[in-house]
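[Primary structure, fold]
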Amino acid sequence: MLPTVTLLVLLAPPAVESAADAGAREDRPRFGFVVDVGLPDGAAVGVQIKAAPDFKLELAGLTNGVGFGVRAGAGVFVLPKLFRTFRPVVSADVGSLFQGDASWLPGVDPAVKAALAQVSYFFCSAAAGFELGSPNVAFVFKLGVAYVAGKLPSLTVPLPNSGALVATGIVVSGLIPSAKVGLSVAFD
């Protein structure tokens, strides 16, 4: 009877994870995915790697209903060891939405409709926010500012005296508010 009890004790997993084991698990890279919606990004689905407990990288595919694009970003958790379920984060993203057709949008002036058939834009954003949840599954909320530069190939505006004003290579740029709400899932 004694050998059986000894064998069961040796094979039984430890009931509580040691602090050293938990720290080692948290320090190793964790891969996962992210799903979010925001401005100027649109809707995104991507992959992430938490390279360190307080740093992560993301790469995502985007769509805004007009075209498709990509986004790359990095985030740093502020005070990562202090909070487990509420983690403040600052992040920076760079992305581009490639040429898309926005001429189908309702309420577009017919004079502008042709110019909106080939719309694209680039953005870079800086944001602050937080993740709410476990280190493995968390809701993401961020607010910030973004620089956006959009391109229209040409615009023709009819003039009252049977002429037209033609502009080509139009670039519209400026700072706009940015926002993001999403879900982050990481795997051990």
Q: What stands out?
A: The two ends are 39 Å apart (CA to CA). The first strand starts at residue 30 and ends at 39.
